Amino acid sequence: MPAILDSVAVSDDLRRANDRSNRPIVVVAVLLVLGLYAYLLTSAAEHLGIGPAHQLAERVGVSSLLRFDDNGSLWSSIDVGFAATFARSDDELLAFLLIVAAAFLSAYLLPLQFKQGALVVWTGLAMWLLYGGFATAGLLFAHLAAYLVLHPHRDENLPVSAAAGVAGYLAFAAGGGGALRELTSMAGCGAGCALVYRYGILPALSRPRLAAALRFAVVQSAVIAVAAGVLVAAAGGDFWAYPVGLLLFFWQWAKLTMYHIDHRDGLVPNNIPLSEYLAVFWSPGLVPNWTWDGTIAQGYSYTKNNFLCEDKNRLVLGGVKLLVIALVYLWLWDWGRRAAVDFFSGLGIPVYQASTRALVRGFTRGEEVGTASVLITTLLDLVRWMLLFGSVVHFKVGIWRICGYRIAPYYHRPWTATNLVVLWPRFAFHFREFLIRGFYYPVFFRFFRKRPQLRVLAATMAAAAGNLLFHVVQRLYAKEASPENVWHVVGMWPYFVLLGAGIGLTQIWLMRKKRTRRAWTLDRRVFNDIACAYATVQFFALIHIFARPVPASSVADLWRLFLIGFGIHLPR
Amino acid sequence: MQREAITAELKSFLEREFPNQAVELGESTNLLEEWFVDSLGVVETVLFLEQHFGIGLSRADVNGTNFKDIESLSRLVCERLKT
């Protein structure tokens, strides 16, 4: 079970002690596993002129169990989303893995005071290599603006504000003239930004209400930008296209919100240097699969307190273990799906290639669907999705760990959860933390203080609303800021309501029930645990019917299909 | 209320509400890693602290420092009772 709350502050002396021993075997282990990733998942074999993964799999006799790309590398869900500088996604991943190796060596071997700074630099280099200079400048501009508003007391802020002006120019206005003109414009933007900050923003930040509004505007800029984009589109205007740099910043919305919560709770010193701020947001683990809500939504205190908080070799080997497990999941999901589909098809139970969406499509077309089909298809789809998701987030957390951060696994044996309250932190730990701190606690500590059960239920439903909001915002980034995309996610409301109500009612039930034993204690009640674990995962799988609509399906169709899972067949 | 009495009541609550045969609960047992089953444990403890000791807690009080062990929790209760 991952730690429930952020951990306790760690002194620099303890960090130095944890950083003391360099073990070559640990370095070799990391480089080997990264090399294995490069060989299996990227075009490395092609570049080196050696046989690709497909050839090796054929030799071992497992090629029929796996999926491969055209170049013979293993198909995988791990990628670098929206990257633009390489022609092939395999080359993007290869470039990224090389930078991860360099970042690891820096974090492992450099003196303590340079480690986090080096990780920021390597991340910047990865962004520049994968997304190009304009996008990197856009991301830097957005983070500099956030830093300047959240930390207005630093003496160094004027150069930072000038740098923000330069980055903003490079991101949004550069490329219009000769070198001299570009340099002059850049210098003008830098100087202009510094003046606006010194004489406009700094005085505004000294007034508490204005400062709070400015901080809110910066932290919630992602939501504000997409909301404005939707309103413009709804009024008949053009769809807004967001520059990739800003998109990358918007994607850190949950992380920035957590940083802001830490800031409001007094957990972030006002005078932290820029490098310390950037270390929270610019780390190699954030680069791959950023569209899989895997930004590790934790703020300053969690990130800072978990850096080298235990022996670095133990941390790194923990990361290697996660990277290896991710590889197993990457292989297992497709093999398991195909084996299960064959098995149930043999029994005469249609399972729609283990796809809930295909099940919904079939039912909407008028096919007769039985309870067993609904239960098994949704369960298989959830297991498939959990393994895919587990591989991606283990890969990300593994990278954080080899870079020296004790980041709790995002995903931790969800199939052992015996109720919905336990399932969530096991399935999406960091996202759950974001919902708890961002939505649950504000309601829990403000409303219904005299009525504990109502208090818990209201707080849980607030978290469910936060979950819906996150998915709306996420879809608007991934697709486009249009009213249709808002309604698409809002149309999934039964999923969010049923999940919230299920978790809320489970909490109330657990509060009333006397606990006499821990789950999975090996006694005669372990069979209850197995039944509860199945019921929990099956319920979670079933409600995904509402999250996998097809264009022709109405909410009423989805409810009918959901109820078939309980053996209730309503007329169409 | 004396610190020792607060500690004893906290220990009794935690043993009653979250029975754990694997670990013996002491004043310095790490509650977050060894005792609470899930985040609901933290929520239930907040409810207990507010109702039993009559103190008010805010979101910022729910952190790893205050909820680390019985000692840190009783320190928090003592501070709040004084104010």
What is the CATH class name of chain B? Answer: Mainly Alpha
The helix-strand sequence of chain B is HHHH
State the low-pLDDT regions of chain A, or none: none
User: Average pLDDT across residues of chain B?
Assistant: 87
Distance between the termini of chain A: 44 Å
Total domains of chain B, how many?
Answer: 1
Report the portion of residues of chain B in β strands. under 5%
Structural class of chain A: mainly alpha
Q: What is the approximate shape of chain B?
A: globular
Number of strands of chain A: 0
Q: Find the biggest chain interface.
A: A-B, 37 and 31 residues
Characterize the overall form of chain A: globular
Q: Structural class of chain B, please?
A: mainly alpha
Helix and strand arrangement:
The complex is a heterodimer of chains A (572) and B (83).
Chain A: H1 12-18, H2 24-41, H3 44-48, H4 53-60, H5 89-109, H6 112-131, H7 133-150, H8 157-172, H9 179-205, H10 208-219, H11 221-234, H12 244-250, H13 253-264, H14 274-281, H15 300-305, H16 312-346, H17 356-364, H18 371-402, H19 420-427, H20 429-444, H21 452-478, H22 483-490, H23 493-512, H24 526-543, H25 555-564
Chain B: H1 3-17, H2 31-35, H3 39-53, H4 70-82
